[in-house]
Amino acid sequence: MTDADNTAMDEGTVGYLLEMGALKRGKRSGWWIAGVKDPETIAEHSWRTAVIGSVLAMMEGADPARVALLCTFHDTQETRVGDIPWIGRRYLTAANNEAVTADQVADAHPKVAAGIQKIIEEYENGESLEVLVAHDADRLECTIQGLEYLQQGYPAAQEWVDSTRAKLKTPSAQALAKAALTMSIAEWQRTYLQ
């Protein structure tokens, strides 16, 4: 491999990393339907999903690092297709996440491209405990975020709380969602920050 080839791969990999920065600015658009004026970003959602995934993995006996990795990359395609809310999916046909990811990493270092594509393929099509936990982490994060928006005065967020909570599959995610229903942000602050 020539120096020019290495430079091109390095630039392609950095291009991917720069593209991921857009996730820090892209808003989770489904919350606008609930009336939330300034919803969380995709990156904020993905970060807490990874933390929740790690915790759920510990509780369920799955590999916490693997689950965190799956959760970290689960919405990276939204730099190209945006965050399409569930209602919008009824009217749009978008490329699958595997195809979007292939385009995103096309110019990256081959090991990086193969690694990221493998993560997305596993998240989208795998059946392991880690994949189940990662999907539950995504739903539990949405449930918790919805509860926070409810506490901030957005009553339409209740639909997201109810619909995502109903889709939880693991006993640990169900238990944490149930516990989250009983704890407000103010209560958490009083209990744990004193």
TrEMBL record:
<keyword id="KW-0378">Hydrolase</keyword>
<dbReference type="InterPro" id="IPR003607">
    <property type="entry name" value="HD/PDEase_dom"/>
</dbReference>
<dbReference type="Pfam" id="PF13023">
    <property type="entry name" value="HD_3"/>
</dbReference>
<comment type="subunit">
    <text>Homodimer.</text>
</comment>
<dbReference type="InterPro" id="IPR006674">
    <property type="entry name" value="HD_domain"/>
</dbReference>
<dbReference type="InterPro" id="IPR039356">
    <property type="entry name" value="YfbR/HDDC2"/>
</dbReference>
<protein>
    <recommendedName>
        <fullName>5'-deoxynucleotidase</fullName>
        <ecNumber>3.1.3.89</ecNumber>
    </recommendedName>
</protein>
<keyword id="KW-0479">Metal-binding</keyword>
<feature type="domain" description="HD/PDEase">
    <location>
        <begin position="38"/>
        <end position="152"/>
    </location>
</feature>
